[in-house]
Amino acid sequence: MSLAYFWIFLFLMCAGTPIVFALLIGPGLSLTIDGQEIFFKVLLSRLYNGMDSFPLMAVPFFILAGEVMNSGGITALIVKFSQAMIGHVRGGLAQMNILSSVFFAGLSGSAVADTSALGKMLIPAMEQNGYSRRFAAAITAASSVIGPIIPPSGIMIIYAFIMNVSVGGLFAAGLIPGLMVCTGLMLITKRLARIRDYPAAGRKATWRERGQALRQTFLALLTPIILLGGILLGIFTPTEAAAVAAGYALVISVFVIRTLQIKELPGVFINAVVQSGVILLLVGAAVTFAWIITVSGMAQFIADGIADTTDNVYLLLFLINIFLFVVGMFLDAGPAILILGPVLAPLFIDMGVDPLHFAVVMCVNVTVGLATPPMGLVLFVASAVSGQKVEKIALEMVPFLAVEIAVIFLITYIPALSMTLPRLLGFA
Question: What average pLDDT does this structure show over 182-193?
Answer without folding.
Answer: 93
